[in-house]
Design brief:
heterodimer, A: mainly alpha, 10 helices, 2 strands, 80% helix, globular, B: alpha/beta, four-stranded antiparallel beta sheet, 9 helices, 23% strand
Chain lengths: 328, 284
């Protein structure tokens, strides 16, 4: 008896480990195959397309250009450092000769590199996204709790939700120029334009999902709250908010995705600093390397978008009580 | 004064607006419940038992008539009429302890100190034998344990009336028997007024002082009231052969299956039930 059950046990554990090996292989192997096939098609396809800027870049050219962009960045940094060292030496010299001389510090005005543009874009998208979330979550909670407020605001939401960022952009630009008049501006106007455009476009998924999540709070839990006579603030904090957290995060992830897409478009159109401007500049530049550089930007934009979504997912896993929620 | 300390349902009727016109769910429900009394409501599904309970809880408003508790009319929900919901209704993001604590903090915010609140929460969880799992979340404990926590939460509010909506309906027979025994002990201990909805004839006879049998809807009302004069404490094994006990069982069964036999098609029944539920949702 014992031996039989033992052997059964070992068989079952063997098949289990077999299965986990299989699933691990699938998890690694299939994506690798997909990637390889994609690279092959790209390579073969690209070599047959000739554009006015030369051959369409294949994976190899794109890799070379990514290295070149890293090199550019390092050279630019070295130049910047050299500039500051020279300036410091010069100022020290002049102060030594004339103790009354007040040293002037000038900032380096080199051209922003690809990596500087990534940084600018990331800061802008996060600022716009946070602004949108700060407006959308509280507003969504109010709309979800009050049916009359929902009815009042729904037409406006439905009207503005499908508007393309490019349509907003001229209006936002003019508004920022007209309203943000300051002799010593804290933020660049281009930054504010991009930020507001992003916020306007990525507001809606969070708003709608929050409202839906809040209005879908289980009536049983609402009844618990009523029996306890929880005050409004406690009701929202202890019951409404936790129960709609999964929906809020779904909205936030959609919003962040839209924010990233909108930002690139806005930067391209408005010539605001960032990855979009990099793409546009390379397009206008029209050298034989431009298309490969644009392709590097495309891949980086994709990778960053993916990374942002993963980060949101991680935050959701940390914050949400519902660990079983399937998150893709 | 003493005479006023009871719960009275006076000529309670309720109508719901549905797509096919108004639906008269209850008509002329009259009932007086003495303090410390254990009353069961029994009847076929869709007869408005839950509606009666929700009106007493204040979650639904009667169209005519009303509920009077200790000389005051019931207009809104409140912790003095604690509800044990059928599906436990624990907040899934809080532990058992925190679920009870939320209620205790709300009810005793101004009268108990922090340490007293802590002790009171633990005491109530111990009372339902949940001390060992008080820091677990609802999805980590069994259905019976969840219902225990739901009962602990209701008891912790120190209610004058405990309202239970099929509290053991979703549990297996053994767990149910166990919880019934616990409930009898607690009720003997606290002597609070209890109104319990049930489908289970044995449960009704075992636990109740009176069984209120409801007629079928629409326009459901109280058909018969059966006082159960069995000695307490009651023991389910001894009572199984008791002639008096079985007499009571037969009376309830006769009411349900002879006098109030359900002849409605199943679809119509489901419709009327969901209409009542919809109304609760709307007001919620």
């Amino acid at each position: 008896m014992n031996i039989i059950s033992l052997s059964r046990l070992s068989v079952s554990s063997l098949s289990f480990s077999d299965m986990s090996v299989k699933s691990a292989a699938r998890a690694l192997f299939l994506p690798l195959i997909g990637l390889t096939v994609f690279l092959m098609i790209w390579h073969v396809g690209a070599s047959r397309i000739d554009t006015s800027l030369g051959q369409f870049p294949g994976p190899v050219q794109v890799y070379e250009q990514s290295q070149a962009l890293i090199g550019d960045h390092q050279r630019e940094r070295a130049r910047e450092q050299a500039f500051y060292e020279r300036q410091e030496a010069r100022n020290a010299d002049r102060v030594a000769k004339d103790p009354n001389y007040v040293a002037k510090i000038r900032t380096y005005t080199g051209k922003p590199t690809f990596f500087d543009q990534i940084g600018t874009s990331l800061i802008t998208v996060l600022a716009g996204f946070i602004l949108a979330a700060v407006i959308a979550i509280p507003l969504g909670i109010c709309i979800g709790l009050s049916e009359s407020l929902y009815s009042a605001l729904n037409p406006i939401i439905q009207l503005f939700k499908p508007v393309s960022p490019l349509a907003w952009l001229p209006l936002v630009t003019m508004l920022v120029s007209a309203l943000y008049v300051s002799p010593d501006p804290l933020f660049a106007k281009s930054f504010l334009t991009s930020l507001f455009t992003v916020a306007l476009c990525c507001l809606w998924p969070t708003l709608i999902n929050t409202a839906v999540g809040v209005s879908a709070v289980s009536p049983d839990l609402t009844n618990v709250s009523k029996v306890l006579r929880l005050p409004w603030s406690v009701h929202v904090r202890r019951i409404v908010l936790p129960s709609s957290i999964p929906m809020i995060f779904t909205g936030l992830r959609l919003s962040l995705g839209i924010a990233w897409m909108v930002l690139i478009a806005a930067e391209m159109l408005a010539q605001n600093p960032g990855l979009g401007k990099f793409v546009w500049d390379e397009f206008q530049n029209g050298s034989s390397n431009s298309l490969a550089r644009i392709m590097v930007a495309v891949l980086v934009i994709g990778l960053i978008g993916f990374g942002l979504d993963r980060i949101m997912l991680m935050i959701q896993r940390k914050v949400s009580w519902d660990k079983t929620a399937v998150t893709r | 004064m003493q005479a006023k300390k009871n719960l009275t349902l006076s000529d309670v009727s309720i109508e719901f607006d549905t797509a096919s016109g108004t639906f008269q769910a209850l008509q002329g429900v009259n009932l007086t419940i003495e303090p410390g009394e254990f009353v069961s409501l029994i009847g076929h599904s869709g007869c408005g038992k839950s509606t009666v309970l929700n009106i007493v809880a204040g979650l639904l408003q009667a169209t005519t008539g009303g509920v009077i508790l200790n000389g005051r009319e019931v207009n809104e929900p409140g912790p003095e009429r604690a509800v044990v919901f059928q599906n436990h209704s624990l907040l899934p993001w809080l532990t058992a302890y925190q679920n009870v604590e939320l209620a205790v903090k709300q009810v005793f915010r101004s009268t108990k100190s922090k340490a007293e609140i802590h002790d009171w929460v633990e005491f109530n969880l111990e009372r339902v034998h949940m001390a060992h799992a008080m820091h677990k979340r609802p999805d980590e404990i069994s259905g019976g344990m969840k219902q225990r926590v739901g009962i602990a939460r209701a008891l912790a509010m120190q209610p004058q009336v405990l309202l239970m909506d099929e509290p053991f309906g979703a549990l297996d027979a053994l767990t149910r028997a166990h919880l019934q025994d616990s409930l009898m002990e607690i009720q003997a201990d606290l002597n609070c007024t209890v109104i319990m909805i049930t489908h289970d004839v044995d449960e009704a006879v075992l636990l109740s002082d009176r069984i209120v049998m409801m007629t079928n809807g629409p326009s459901a009302t109280i058909g018969e009231i059966l006082p159960i004069e069995l000695e307490r404490p009651r023991n389910r094994i001894e009572l199984a052969d008791d002639t008096q006990y079985n007499g009571y069982r037969h009376q309830v069964l006769r009411f349900l299956y002879e006098k109030q036999r359900k002849v409605e098609p199943i679809k119509a029944r489901a419709g009327s039930k969901s209409a009542a539920e919809l109304e609760v949702r709307k007001t919620a």
